[in-house]
């Protein structure tokens, strides 16, 4: 086997810096990084508009006309399955190589090649032996913390965006470990990879580190991180209106909470309450007011939101299991009718509706349209950042790197192609059958063998697909998302890729925990000033200086 | 002359005895009973709830809003599901292999090392003792351990879970202290009778040390059965996974990472019901619950011995 330390001795500095990368994430210490390169330790800023030269040239590929148009950045919706599919890639992309991958997954891991008909069918089409290494999505960061500093990485590595932002010095790691894809994909060089060229430019622009194109992005199909969902069936039955102001939200809580029946109004709705009070959230909680860079904790809006949250906790409107335990399953309480309104990711909607309607007749969860505390125009948080990034191991050689890119190109084929159907649903008759509506419906074998082994190494141009279990889902989702686009927060740092200083990254989580204590009444509201001072001294000011400099350098 | 009455004698005896040797008062006995009942209930109620939930239908779980305490129906579909999918039974076998082979190897190495280190004057006695003791103070760290394990070619092998932690310094010290407590005269007399070190260890020391070996064996076995983090690091193949990984996968299945932009397309499979999750918990618990009563007798004795002398 390859020695994972090969080459490390030749560059002690970058090795130590990589060690620091793991050590910082685990222990929150910056000592080791000091031995490495200085720049990343202090944070980096790339002005993306200056990096156009390294980005692939966008070539839209609309094989199927959408049934519901999404207002950019909302994805298009498809309610009808294409009657005929295009064979978009006729030549086998693989050259018979064995290619190892690592992707996260939140569920059971299926068998590998040779024992998995889904994998074998795709590998036969690819002309390569892709061997997936599927890892538990919740402990993915732990695994990364071991394999990145040890330089023991697979040929193709998927890293979720939210994990990257937790790793200080990531640009150093990227330089040392991953293939620079600029020379393969920049500008017109992307032409042989037609599917990759159809991915949105905004997604590609985030895949740049050290001013080089380092990854293939997995574009987001919806910009909103959070939604408030309510049990429409229960709320309508109780004759309560859905809220349009903060006061109405509180009144809703009062009316729906009934401890005698075991029903409470909310789970922890902190993020949504902040949004309702128009707290800024660019670059994870920053905003710029009158030319002054402010973190959310420093704003009056945040103080008001925190006060409101503390009141919800104090008046017992939040389910006691959520109050008592970090691990409380709010989804379960919501689906069992014990919580009337829940803050969750938009992704919770389809799965929960599809499953729970089988158990509870009339189960109907709907998102609350975005609103502001005073009833005026809401501020909606959102980000066009990609969900995942796919990196190719450095040093595989030109031929194998190109083979991998061709495979990623195959996987990125959009709806309307045979390739998409194979990756998304498997083999007809085995992994899916087509229902009366024409859409593929998964079989038990699909549930057993498919764990997005391929989907997570390359996304397609964003689409929202019909789901027979919840026929109105596409329409409901896109209408709700489209309505909020005009209220999306304007990011003062739009077009810049920022890697925050290690000192700032370190202080973030402890401060969030302290703020949580205040919201839950474990510390008085007046302690916010103390927490703020500790945050400023502990690294907050370093973060502010970094962001302020980025703005002034860009002349904004 | 003072007449000593039986009451006075009883009082004097009481004064000479320590308080804990007194026969307990009625209030004390009731208090003890209540406390022990509370402890037993604190252990049994969650277990009861896990078992009842694993045999409940999805409707009963939804109505209860989570864990079920009072059985409303009896549904074995969760068990049928996990055993037809196959990964739970495969993982149970893998964990059994790791536990049995790992525990045997660990106990063997620990006993041999402890015997050597319990004999002052044995070869490199002091440096070797320091070598083991130093691991109490300095941990190897995640990355160096990972590099060593992968460099030795142990990745994707169950040996990666066994070899790096085959000997635990704490267990070694407990066994060593126990061996040192065996009278030297006993061993000397065996030597006079012509016994070698191997005979002394197997025929004299080990038969006298059943309790400590049992308790250390149990420590190792529970450790191997519960191994999770190293399995996450070193095992990539689905067929190699151990029970704790499968349990974790069932527990977290369907929990999309909160707050990310576009989960609808992520294609999370429908999460297993709570009944399925709890059924996996029951399956994972069975071996531990089944083995524990047989070792419990030694366990108490071994722990007390270790605590007094170690």
| The CATH C-level class name of the largest domain in chain B | Mainly Alpha
* Average of per-residue pLDDT values of chain A: 86
Percent strand of chain A equals 5-15%
Distance between the ends of chain A = 52 Å
Give the radius of gyration of chain A: 24 Å
Shape of chain A: globular
Mean pLDDT of chain B: 83
Helix content of chain B: 55-70%
Oligomer: heterodimer
Total count of strands of chain A:
19
N-to-C CA distance of chain B:
53 Å
Q: So how many helices of chain A? A: 22
Could you please describe the fold and organization of this structure?
The complex is a heterodimer of chains A (556) and B (310). Chain A is of the alpha/beta class. In chain A, 38% of the residues lie in helices and 14% in strands. Chain A has two domains: 9-68 and 84-221 and 385-470, 3-Layer(aba) Sandwich (D-Maltodextrin-Binding Protein, domain 2), CATH 3.40.190.10; 227-382 and 489-553, Periplasmic binding protein-like II (D-Maltodextrin-Binding Protein, domain 2), CATH 3.40.190. In chain A, the strands form seven sheets. Chain A has a five-stranded mixed sheet. A four-stranded mixed sheet of chain A has the order 10-13-9-14. In chain A, a hairpin with a 2-residue loop joins β11 and β12 (292-295). Chain B has 15 helices and no strands. Chain B has helices at 6-16, 26-54, 58-64, 77-85, 87-118, 125-137, 142-151, 159-162, 169-180, 184-192, 197-208, 210-225, 229-234, 243-252, 274-309. In chain B, α9 packs antiparallel against α12 (210-225). Chain B is flat, with a radius of gyration of 27 Å. The model of chain B is unreliable at 258-269 (pLDDT under 50). Classes of the chains: A alpha/beta (556), B mainly alpha (310). At the A-B interface, α1, β4, α4, α15 and α16 of A face α3, α7, α13 and α14 of B. Chain A: This is Sugar ABC transporter substrate-binding protein. Chain A: InterPro entries: Bact_solute-bd_prot1 (IPR050490), SBP (IPR006059). Chain A: It comes from Catellatospora coxensis. Chain B: It is a multi-pass membrane protein.
